[in-house]
Write a structure and sequence with these properties.
Strand order of the largest sheet: 2-1-3-5-4
Helix content: 40-55%
Strand content: 5-15%
Protein name: Sulfotransferase domain-containing protein
Radius of gyration: 22 Å
Distance between the termini: 80 Å
Number of strands: 5
InterPro entries: Uncharacterised_NKWYS
CATH topology: Rossmann fold
Pfam families: NKWYS
Number of helices: 13
Low-confidence stretches: none
Organism: Cochleicola gelatinilyticus
CATH class: Alpha Beta
Order of helices and strands: HHEHEHEHHHHEEHHHHH
């Protein structure tokens, strides 16, 4: 004889019942999400990737009294349900969001992203490759989308939230806050020291005694040794010109351009 619990489970397997349950759970999630968003402005770690966001994200998530969300893009096509929910709600209602983003010297950032997406940009899994350093550099220069960090702020922060970070000079302190209506943005350099990051995030999100967790994501990567050798290679002058003459680099690394060129030039 079938039990009540077994019957209930069988009913749940019926397609139209599954659809009803899915819609009910979706509605419940959206209502709870909206309630949390209006209770405390969400901390949104919105960044281009490979800028040191992991430590900030995990630390804020554990210490902030509101929701903490992280992504590289802002759309309803994101796989993360919280990013999708934030996007869909923002299209209907303009509510406060406390965005945190980071910038990084573009050559170092692109190399880090190239290794993170090794198979995509080389056509081979890292464990199966037998490329020399010179061959890897050729693949990096040919296949990676180098303009991505140069345009990301305009393509996202400006286009979506109406904040043009290039309107005013970027301070030597390495960080700056911006605001457009209910949207706030804290933007800081990847290489700002941890004590400064803790102070500015603490002030921005009103987290007393905020501390960053030391999350070293790179040390355990399978490509760590090759990556370390790769970053000692010199880059072609044409590539350096494209990266260092960009609006992005001139804005955020004005006083460092000569030093960066010397580091990477042959």
């Amino acid at each position: 004889m079938i039990t009540k619990k077994q019957l209930k489970n069988k009913v749940k397997q019926i397609p139209f019942v599954q659809k009803i349950l899915f819609q009910r759970n979706k509605k419940r999630f959206q209502l709870n999400f909206k309630k949390e968003v209006y209770k405390n402005p969400p901390a949104y770690i919105f960044q281009m990737g490979k800028v040191g966001s992991s430590s900030a994200f995990h630390s804020i998530k554990n210490q902030y009294h509101g929701m903490c969300i992280r992504s590289h893009w802002f759309s309803d096509k994101e796989s993360d349900l919280h990013v999708k929910a934030l996007y869909n709600l923002y299209q209907k209602e303009k509510f406060p969001i406390k965005i945190i983003s980071m910038v990084r010297e573009p050559i170092s950032r692109n190399i880090s992203a190239f290794f993170q997406n090794f198979e995509r940009d080389t056509g081979t899994k890292y464990k199966d490759h037998n490329f020399s350093l010179q061959q890897l550099q050729e693949l990096f220069l040919k296949n990676y989308k180098h303009e991505m960090p140069l345009t990301w702020l305009d393509d996202t922060i400006k286009a979506i939230f109406g904040i043009d970070v290039y309107e005013m000079p970027f301070p030597e302190s390495g960080y700056k806050t911006y605001q457009n209506g209910p949207i706030e943005l804290l933007l800081y350099k990847h290489d700002v020291d941890d004590a400064t990051k803790e102070k500015i995030i603490s002030d921005y999100l009103q987290i007393p005694n905020f501390k960053l967790s030391n999350i070293n994501m790179g040390a355990a990567k399978e490509y760590a040794v090759t990556y370390k050798e790769f970053i000692n290679l010199k880059m072609p002058h044409s590539y350096l010109d494209a990266m260092l003459n960009s609006k992005y680099t001139k804005h955020f690394y004005t006083s460092d351009i000569y030093k960066i060129r010397q580091k990477w030039s042959s």
